[in-house]
Amino acid sequence: MTEYEAILSRHSVRRYTPEPVEPEKAEILKKKIDEINEKTGMAISLCLDEPGAFMAEKPSYGSFSGCRNYIVMAARKGDDEAVGYYGEALVLLAQTLGLNTCWVALTFEKGAVPVSIPEGFKIFDLIALGHGQTQGVPHRSKPLERLYKAKEPVPDWFMDGMKAAALAPTAINQQRFLIVYKDGKVSAKALLGPCSKTDLGIVKYHFEIGAGKDNVIWED
Ligand SMILES: Cc1cc2nc3c(=O)[nH]c(=O)nc-3n(C[C@H](O)[C@H](O)[C@H](O)COP(=O)(O)O)c2cc1C
Question: Is 52 helix (H, G, I), strand (E, B) or coil?
Answer without folding.
Answer: coil
